[in-house]
Write a structure and sequence with these properties.
The complex is a heterodimer. By secondary structure, chain A is an alpha+beta fold. In chain A, helix 1 crosses helix 2 and helix 2 crosses helix 5. Chain B has 15 helices and 13 strands. In chain B, the strands form 3 sheets. In chain B, strands 2-8-7-6-5-3-4 form a 7-stranded mixed sheet, with helices on both faces. A 4-stranded antiparallel sheet of chain B has the order 9-10-13-12. In chain B, strands 1-11 form a two-stranded parallel ribbon. In chain B, helix 1 packs antiparallel against helix 9. The longest helix of chain B is centred in the last third of the chain and has 21 residues. The radius of gyration of chain B is 22 Å and the shape is globular. Classes of the chains: A alpha+beta, B alpha/beta. At the A-B interface, strand 2, strand 3 and helix 2 of A face helix 11 and helix 13 of B.
Chain lengths: ~210, ~400
């Protein structure tokens, strides 16, 4: 009998490594959303002198490939410098797992994005970014690519839900093309706020819903 | 490992009953001729007689006469024949409007979608949170152009039983043909065409411990239905192709072997399963109704965990179940049934379906709940959702 998953994937699925939370993490990120499917949380502790990842933990609300990828990236990232860890990509994670079925790519990409986002979070909080880039519409748009549109499972930018972005004196106004009483409205609002609020020069995030379909 | 598997996916397929195989055997080795007219040779005449005997036995279970049932290759072909056959017969005479429900199974749903691409209009009737059809909406949706209403007898995922008698009466009053997909209810629930005004019924052997690859379509006399697969004149000229006589005989035997005692036993098992899951595993929601539900079906959502992870863990422990999670489906789409009853992606994500059959025992039910409880605990340990709920289940 043949499973679609490699032995290595099944082994990490059965016994995932580095599971759980880190109290007072130096960086953390949640990628995905329960509304559209899988979800991964990544927590890191960073040695401020060496810039190495001292400890890393993950949590998953997802399928076997999501859990296994979360597990393998913690192993790959542990002990690496932030610069090295940032470069870990999905292909490396997949290879380390002995391959993943192509239909499962999107579930496993989340874990890799989770690691990058946790590092980004660390850099945002600790001012590691060499020159602080002011938040522009482009920056906001890039971040919003990680917010999923639960109606389609694709991100809100690609699915044209973001109608307008306005940035003025630290206040970011985002217009979303959905009726305010839409079943996912509060979920999307929460996710957008979570992604934009941590930017260093953002004080306030206003998410407005405008129904343009009618 | 395979030997110890506890199979709880009987809506997808069933283990064939040995008695069915015994009934089929002679039609592979002794009476293997194609069914022929009375002017043929004797083995062909024998084949014809035995095929019609099987046909009569299955038809009588529906209160129908022998000539009102044709054999097909399964539920998918039966439903395609019903939907496409009626459309071909009536599109020029009456119109191009079809009514169905949001939670129908794919043979009906995708047959209608295929017709929509060719200019048909379709109305998808809503269901309530337990899966019961909005019958008033159905009634209001029927127009002069409506040629067919296709509403399933019972749902494939959440077991909801529709009031097809009431639906049939509305269709009869309005002069619209009514098809029902009874793949999961045939022999498990009573259905008699002399009482229920239904014109077309999809049935299949694979859900009844019969062989795969054989199904049937009940066609009430004088129902307008055009042939859509061309070839010979078999099956009263409704379905071309060499008859699957061993399959037909096996189907009839499988039907004979289902009895009310077995259905009551399955219902008891189902109730035990539902009660145990809801009481032993915290943060669970039953999908579908408690009553007016298929005797063999249970479906729950286990919150904060994902369905494919559950099924894989259960498989490693020797249980076969199914889930409505997008990660499990070939299309990466969450169950349209769970979404149809007003559920969200989260509810579909952690939904698990258990369907019982002849070879399941109360011990199987107890052991799957025990395994499910362990698996849930394990997966919730690593879930980033709802910390407070993780505490609840630790006894």
């Amino acid at each position: 009998m043949k499973f679609p998953y490699s032995e290595k994937v099944l082994e990490h699925f059965r016994n995932p490594r580095n599971v759980g939370q880190i109290e007072n993490p130096d960086g953390k990120a949640v990628e995905g959303s329960p509304a559209c499917g899988d979800m991964v949380a990544v927590y890191i502790k960073v040695d401020s002198k060496t810039q190495k990842i001292k400890d890393i933990k993950f949590e998953s609300y997802g399928c076997a490939s999501n859990i296994a990828t979360g597990s393998i990236i913690t192993e790959l990232a542990k002990g690496k410098t932030l610069q090295e860890a940032k470069k870990i990509n999905w292909k490396q994670a997949s290879e380390a797992l002995g391959g993943l079925p192509s239909i499962k790519v999107h579930c496993s990409v989340l874990a890799v994005e989770g690691l990058r986002a946790a590092i980004q979070d660390y850099e945002d909080r600790h001012g590691v970014v060499k020159k602080k880039e002011p938040t522009t519409e482009k920056v906001v748009r890039k971040r919003l690519r990680h917010v999923m549109n639960p109606l389609t499972g694709l991100d809100v930018v690609r699915t044209n839900l973001i109608k307008e972005i306005n940035i003025e004196k630290g206040v970011v106004k985002i217009k979303v093309g959905l009726p305010p009483d839409h079943q996912f409205a509060s979920n999307i609002k929460e996710e957008i706020t979570e992604k934009i609020k941590p930017l260093w020069d953002v004080e306030e995030v206003n998410v407005l819903f405008v129904d343009e379909s009618e | 490992m395979e030997n110890q598997l506890i199979y709880l996916d009987n809506a997808a397929s069933t283990r064939m009953d040995e008695r069915v195989l015994e009934a089929m055997k002679p039609y592979f080795f002794d009476v293997y001729a194609v069914a022929s007219s009375e002017f043929g040779y004797s083995m062909g005449i024998q084949a014809r007689e035995d095929l019609d005997k099987a046909r009569g036995e299955i038809a009588s279970k529906l209160g129908a006469s022998q000539k009102e049932l044709i054999f097909t290759s399964g539920a998918t072909e039966s439903s395609n024949t019903a939907v496409k056959g009626v459309s071909l017969a009536l599109e020029k005479k009456k119109g191009k409007h079809i009514i169905t429900s949001k939670i129908e199974d794919f043979p009906v749903l995708n047959s209608i979608k295929a017709l929509e691409k060719r200019g048909y209009k379709a109305t998808y009737i809503d269901v309530d949170k337990e899966g019961f059809l909005d019958i008033d909406q159905l009634k209001d949706s029927i127009t002069e152009e409506t040629i067919l209403v296709s509403i399933q007898h019972a749902n494939q995922e959440i077991g909801t039983i529709q009031d097809i008698e009431k639906i049939g009466k509305i269709c009869r009053e309005k002069g619209v043909i009514f098809h029902t997909d009874a793949t999961h209810s045939f022999t498990r629930l009573p259905l008699d065409v002399s009482e229920t005004p239904v014109d077309l019924i999809t049935v299949s052997a694979h859900t009844l411990h019969g062989p795969k690859g054989v199904g049937g379509l009940y066609i009430r006399e004088k129902t307008p239905l055009s042939k859509w697969m061309d070839g010979g004149f078999q099956e009263s000229n409704f379905r071309a192709g060499i008859e699957n006589i061993p399959g037909a005989v096996g189907f009839a035997k499988a039907v004979e072997l289902v009895n009310p005692e077995e259905n009551q036993r399955l219902e008891n098992l189902r109730d035990r399963l539902i009660q145990k899951m809801l009481s032993d595993i915290p943060q669970t929601t039953l999908n579908g109704p408690r009553k007016r539900r298929l005797p063999q079906n249970a479906n729950i959502t286990i919150h904060y965990v994902e369905g494919e992870s559950i099924t894989l863990h259960l498989d490693m422990r020797g249980f076969a179940v199914s889930t409505g999670s997008a990660c499990f489906s070939r299309s990466l789409e969450a169950s349209h049934v769970i979404m149809g009853i007003g559920g969200d992606h989260e509810r579909a994500h952690g939904s698990v379906r258990f369907t019982l059959g002849r070879y399941n025992s109360p011990e199987d039910v107890d052991s799957v709940v025990e395994a499910l409880s362990e698996v849930t605990q394990k997966l919730r340990e690593i879930s980033p959702l709802k910390k407070e709920n993780k505490e609840v289940k630790k006894k």
